[in-house]
Design brief:
Structural class: mainly alpha
Largest sheet: none
Number of strands: 0
Number of domains: 1
Number of helices: 15
Distance between the termini: 44 Å
Helix content: over 70%
Order of helices and strands: HHHHHHHHHHHHHHH
């Protein structure tokens, strides 16, 4: 057997094993985190980690298909009513992304593209791969994206609950809990729909990869599957495939890490502080704006601005007694819009000022 194939199988095996172990102890993004650690240890200790460059393309296509599948027809019907909060949310995130990115670049050794991509409020498995495609230091981006995800899942909801409870005690007007009807999810879950989704995502992902557009494979797979889902309701991606993509992404990122990258982690303390303060400020300031102008309760508005995944927010919102479906729809819109357009905006800025 060719040594490259042997190293590939070994990397996947170690990455999957570490990913599974970290996932089982319920670490946010555990599959990705564990796979990165496993592949990195294999590479640093034995120099035996290997993942082909095509891995980036495969992960982009799978991740894009998942984001495309996340929207529902019932979500589209809600769009006219949530255009205003969507614009406010995305505008605030873009301002935060650019301002924090510049600040990180000026205050640390990180290059501009790595600084910008570290703050992008996208998926923790998607964003580092897109960063790698754009020439950023993907390993450092992954570390900061993981911290953002941990904050979004483990810290922000607790802060929001504490702040909201305290404010409620100070206010005499009482407190209302907004409510919207539940999302109507597609029931299409056949293997035929899965095959069709993968074929469409692969074809358009490959076309997008040839266009020269930054993260073109990712963008084209999102849009193509989104059209397939909303127009024909014949798109489906099982959760296990997403887990596979997270392990692939983690193995690729881990295989690029060498000892100097570990030593360079000391330079990430200040960038991480900037990201934490930035997202915390965005959560409360934008949350207040959404609450005052869009009819959301204070708790709903701050949950909308929390930097976590849509699936995570569905569970967190339910645990916190929030039944407003628009919170979840806005999180899904954030994922679709941010991952489709933010890399393009960053690429334009780099083209003119980089």
């Amino acid at each position: 057997m060719d040594m490259a194939y042997l190293y590939l199988l070994l990397t996947l095996l170690i990455g999957a094993l570490f990913g599974y172990l970290v996932y089982k102890i319920k670490v946010p993004g555990g599959l990705l985190v564990g796979a990165i650690v496993g592949a990195a240890l294999l590479n640093i200790c034995f120099g035996a980690a290997y993942m082909p460059n095509q891995t980036k393309l495969l992960v982009q296509i799978i991740a894009g298909a998942f984001i495309g599948c996340s929207m529902e027809k019932s979500d589209v019907k809600r769009l006219p009513k949530i255009i205003k909060p969507t614009i406010i949310m995305i505008s605030a995130l873009l301002i935060l992304n650019l301002a924090a990115g510049v600040l990180i670049h000026l205050s640390s050794p990180l290059d501009l593209v790595t600084s910008f991509m570290s703050v992008v409020p996208g998926g923790i498995s998607d964003t580092p791969i897109i960063a790698a495609v754009m020439g950023a230091d993907a390993a450092k981006v992954a570390v900061m994206q993981i911290v953002r995800q941990v904050l979004g899942i483990g810290v922000f909801p607790l802060l929001i609950r504490t702040y909201d409870d305290r404010r409620n005690k100070l206010e005499e007007d009482g407190y209302r809990e907004a409510y919207t009807e539940k999302r109507q999810k597609s029931k299409t879950k056949s293997w035929q729909a899965l095959v069709c989704t993968l074929i469409v995502a692969a074809i358009f992902g490959l076309i997008g990869n040839k266009t020269g557009i930054p993260a073109g494979a990712f963008v084209f797979s999102i849009v193509s599957v989104l059209i397939l889902k909303l127009l024909f309701d014949f798109a489906y991606m099982p959760k296990n495939l997403k887990k596979f993509a997270q392990i692939l992404s983690g193995c690729y990122l881990g295989s690029t890490i060498v000892m100097s990258d570990i030593l360079d982690l000391r330079y990430l303390l200040l960038p991480l502080f900037i990201i934490i303060i930035g997202y915390m400020a965005n959560c409360f300031i934008t949350g207040i704006i959404l609450s005052k102008t869009c009819g959301f309760t204070r708790k709903e508005a701050m949950l909308i601005t929390t930097p976590a995944g849509a699936s995570d927010m569905a569970l967190i919102s339910s645990d916190m007694g929030v039944e407003n479906t628009d919170v979840i729809i806005l999180q899904i819109l954030r994922a679709v819009i941010v991952m489709t357009f933010f890399p393009q905006i960053i690429s334009l800025i780099l083209h003119f000022f980089g």
